[in-house]
Give the backbone structure.
Amino acid sequence: MESFISILDERGLNLLILKGGETVYSSSEGGMLPLLEAIDQLGLRALTDSTVVDRIVGRAAALLISYFKAKEVYTRLLSLKAIEILEKNGIAYAAERVVNTIRNKDDTDTCPFEKMVLMIDNPKEGYRKLKNELIGHS
């Protein structure tokens, strides 16, 4: 796991998606946009059974990762709400730290992406909600 996470640091990335040992997508941007872009640019089939290496995985990211049926997730920070989603969808995971909830950048409240999908369990519904909210606000 540490070798995957160290790749993020070495390359200055926030997200890395690998399939068959090859990088299929990477981004230095934070937030949900890189996962949404990966889905829109590559399509679900290209991302199925992939390995996702992401700095932070909360419920919102877990829904997107479940939507494209990744095989496994490696992360620095994983929320309990994300674990529920990943386990429900049969996705293996490893994390350096597990927290109750993902916080916003100022650490004053819950992450806005987490709030957006708080009541959503269905990955496709989560994808639609996040895409509409983020693309609608960009």
Remarks:
- The longest strand covers residues 72-79.
